[in-house]
Amino acid sequence: MVEAERMVGGRDNDVHVVNDSQVDSIVTPASRLYKDAVNGFGHYIVCCHIVNCGKPLVVFVDCRFDISQSGFHRTLPVINMEDDRVIEMVTLTHKETGSSWRTESTALEQALTALETKGFILEEVVHDDNSQVDAILNQHNIVSQKDLWHKCKNIMGKFKELLQEKRRSPTDSTVEAATTIAQVAVFLMVQLNDYCRQQGLQQTGNKLQLMQRVSVHLNLEEAGAKITEIQRHRPLRYPELATPDIAYKLKSWIYTCAKNAAKRGDTTPEMLTLGIHNSADHWAGEHGTCRTLPGVRKCVLENWSDSHERRYSPGGETHRAVKDFLMKYTTQGKMKYYLRARENYISETFHSVINMSATKRIHFDASHCVRLACSALDWNENIRREVRAVYNRALNDTAVRRRAKTNRVLVRRTTVWKTQLASTLFS
């Protein structure tokens, strides 16, 4: 029993196996039998945690890419949304698929085939934004939904890059014709590198350092300014969007529209996209569409005026830019995958549990699947622990204020799966 506990994870005071050679160097027939039994027993326990009663399931999938040995292993766990337990897990290597980029699609095909063979019915699969996964789910007639958090993250990044950041577009004039640092800042880094090479100046460094060398060479007035001061001279794309909170406002707006669509049970994305596109008019002081959309809105209840909390003028260049941006990146074809407002954070949480047994820093060969099976057993046993107490977090620190205000105290973790595994293997 002690030897079994040491090999499957150890007690709290035992030394955990962190070097793969400690397990893989054993080449006796008993060790091979142990590894095969762990894989088989772990897969059996994982799949038997859910009762196959013919009920359609909603599952989460997210591939874990091992960074050691050029991404040798890639694991795809399938987690049931109802109880957050792993019901299937497929691990492949790039040697089996020929390429690391095809491993996720191949693993998903195998996982769907295995679940269908066992009689499970999948109604919906939630994943990150992957076009290959969409094509596979379409072939199996399964509803495809994407993670809302990743969508909002991508939209925020595009919004900051295209609308909020300072100008980096090229100009028709030459670098020699620049008279201020603000004009030098408009040029691309490639153009500044070419000018430095022509003039015999040093070409190393980032763009701000190149700007400073060019400004000194051209004898501009602000040539002696620091790099941080030079950065402020670059003009904004749209000065009315200079406030940093507008990107987070857009994220909250998309979240609210998606959750409202999920509550209404919308089957088409027309109302969802209309609500998201309305944010451009709402920030311009035009609340006509706000009154026609379903749901209670603060601007309608308080009868806001056209100038109340208006961020830019209606019909102006900024208004058109925001509206064109939303029309391009939140189309009906893209937002149909977010009608149910799904979030795939549970898969990322399970990946952190895997890292405790199979870290990405070390390449595991023979014992990799054993470690994944043990992680799945531990996850399924402890994911639904009871809450003993709830207390408020200290909000004095600014870094803590963005986190949850309350913290839950769960009951102690159990390791019954170790005893069952040891009794099954060594009885």
What does this entry look like structurally?
The protein is of the alpha/beta class and 427 residues long. The chain has 3 domains: 2-145 and 343-426, Nucleotidyltransferase, domain 5; 175-235, no CATH class; 241-336, no CATH class. It is built from 21 helices and 8 strands. The strands form 2 sheets. Strands 1, 2, 3, 4, 5 and 6 form a 6-stranded mixed beta sheet that branches. The protein has a two-stranded antiparallel sheet with strand order 7-8. A hairpin with a 7-residue loop joins strand 2 (64-65) and strand 3 (73-80). The longest helix is centred in the first third of the chain and has 20 residues, at 29-48. The radius of gyration is 28 Å and the shape is globular. Residues 1-31 and 44-49 have low confidence and may be disordered.
